[in-house]
Structure formats: C-alpha cells, structure tokens
C-alpha cells in the first residue's frame, strides 16, 4: 500500500478506501474479496498505472535494484553535477520457488542524498524524482545545490527488493571528478567531465 500511495497519491488512496467502505462496509455475505478491492483501485488509477497494480496485487513481483559507482563534480556556480549509475532487474515468481526475469518499464525514484539529519537520522533529500527505468543499467545526470553524500534507486525501499541494502551508495572522495581536467580523483570513479 505504501508503494501504491507513492505512485497514485495519498488522497487517491484515501478515496479508494472510502469507496471500498461505502460499497462494502457492514455488509453481510457474500463478503468482498481482493478482486473487489483491486477493481476499485483500478477505477481510480490512470492507464499508465494499470500494469503497476497488476504487479503489486496480482503477481509475485520482485526487484533487484542497485546503485553502482557514481560520481560528482563541483560546478563554477558552486552547485554539484552528479552522475548516478544504477542497475535494475525485475523478476516474476511463480509461487513454486522459480523466478523469471521479465521486462522492466517502470518509473522508479532516483535520488541524490545529503548529510544525515541528527534529529531524524534521515539523509537530506537533495534530489528525488521518478525516472523511467527500462534497461538493466542506466545513468542519470542531475544538478544539486549542495555536496552530495550518496545516491540511490528506490532509496526508501518502496518496492519489494531482493537486497534493499544496495539501493544506495555512498559517494567518497574517489567519486569526485576534477572540474578542471574532467579526470577522476580515484580509479573507481566514472569520468563525467568534458
């Protein structure tokens, strides 16, 4: 339901629940089923979310999302250009222990995170936007106002992931790209300069 709220919006999900209660609340037999609930969800969702609803409620779908080595560089205006490299695979399980890789075409959160807030212990979100993920590996370049600390794909684990611990990756000095030469400060970083 958390992922559904993230994609459709809180007000839409609240309306879905209100409609479910209005249609079936305090009703005797026959009681509503999950099919009734999914029908109400579908009636409130735009066409681009119908496949997502199928994946969330009618199939066993897992993801393997991973943030890979990424880099950043400071721009002359003081902001930072961040190149985010991610890997993504979608699996469908058959309920008998067999997983099959299936095509992926979904908008997933791509994020650049800053320093952790001492009170909440949560990182500052410098950038987060759903990007269309269709390939097993993809790169995104964004600009943020302050120094990035880490990057991620689905950083707050809204989707069911085989290994949610690798959804974010910390950027270190090895991820810095020199603004003058375009070369990296460390051998593991990716070059994004001119």
Topology overview:
Blueprint: H1 2-8, H2 10-24, H3 34-44, H4 50-57, E1 60-67, E2 71-74, E3 80-93, E4 99-102, E5 106-116, E6 123-133, E7 137-144, E8 150-153, E9 168-170
Antiparallel strand pairs: 1-3, 2-3, 3-4, 3-7, 5-6, 5-8, 8-9
Provide a short characterization of the protein structure:
By secondary structure, the protein is an alpha+beta fold. The chain folds into 2 domains: 2-58, no CATH class; 61-175, Immunoglobulins (Immunoglobulin-like). The protein has helices at 2-8, 10-24, 34-44, 50-57, and strands at residues 60-67, 71-74, 80-93, 99-102, 106-116, 123-133, 137-144, 150-153, 168-170.
What do you see in this structure?
The chain is of the alpha+beta class. It folds into two domains: 57 residues, no CATH class; 115 residues, Immunoglobulins (Immunoglobulin-like). The protein is 21% helix and 35% strand. The chain contains four helices and nine strands. Strands 1, 2, 3, 4 and 7 form a five-stranded antiparallel sheet that branches. Strands 6-5-8-9 form a four-stranded antiparallel sheet, with no helix packed on it. Helix 2 packs across helix 3. The protein starts with a helix and ends in a 24-residue tail after the last strand.
